[in-house]
Design goal:
Spore Coat Polysaccharide Biosynthesis Protein SpsA, Chain A; single chain; 230 residues; seven-stranded mixed sheet; alpha/beta
Length: 230
């Protein structure tokens, strides 16, 4: 059963590989949206529309000084989801693929009803504590607040985008695992238990980590790293 109150919003650039993989990944998902730039090749837009994706296009911010352009696409996608009366948003990316997205939404429902949900937390050292933001799920109000601002990015090149965004959302400094867990749930363990996997296309070498190139297993490889917590 697919939840009619939940839409998956997929942001990022498009190419032939991504379009092919996205169509295959979401062929059984009814509520799905691609949010990308208005200079995207029209052939990608048309084939995605033919395969049931809602398309939202944003002006490419050539003159904007931001280090996370996907914030703009996600914000506009969520605004469209609000217009369409959805209650929950799953944020994903055009370089992430899966065979069991519906199951993922079903078995984690109680977690993202309660808070914004990520796959896992990340702690590189005592000063660098955040979370994996490539897949996030939460109520549409929480998700809009999370993506509401990007003006701080241009002032904060020395900090992680994820930390800035959760601080914008929480309206407070975030410095520890406990701070993050006030506002976020993690679902890594449930995904392992339910045999749910996502593939992240990363066509370059990882520094110091043993992962498949270019198709990295988010759960089986990335979330097994030493720096991951839940």
């Amino acid at each position: 059963m697919e939840y009619d109150d939940t839409i998956t919003i997929i942001s990022g650039l498009l190419n032939d590989l991504f379009v092919e993989k996205l169509i295959e990944s979401y062929k059984n998902i009814k509520h799905k949206m691609i949010t990308t730039w208005n200079n995207t090749d029209i052939k990608f837009i048309e084939i995605l529309k033919e395969n049931g994706f809602i398309i939202v296009l944003s002006d490419y911010p050539i003159e904007r000084n931001t280090i996370n352009y996907q914030v703009i696409c996600m914000r506009n996608g969520i605004l469209k989801a609000i217009e369409l009366n959805y209650k929950y948003v799953c944020r994903s990316r055009t370089d992430i693929f899966t065979e069991n997205h519906l199951k993922f939404l079903q078995v984690t429902r109680n977690l993202y009803e309660d808070k914004i949900m990520s796959l896992c937390g990340i702690e590189l050292n005592e000063l660098t504590i955040y979370y994996l933001d490539v897949i996030l799920v939460g109520s549409i109000a929480r998700m809009f607040k999370y993506y509401e601002k990007d003006d701080e990015f241009s002032k904060s090149y020395s900090r992680n985008c994820e930390q800035i965004m959760i601080e914008n959302y929480a309206n407070k400094d975030i410095r520890s695992r406990e701070d993050i867990k006030q506002y976020m749930n993690f679902c890594k363990d449930i995904c392992f238990k339910e045999n749910i996997e996502y593939i992240w296309y990363r066509p370059y070498d990882w520094v110091d980590y043993n992962r498949s190139i270019p198709f990295t297993k988010l759960l089986g490889e990335y979330c097994n790293a030493f720096f991951v917590y839940e």
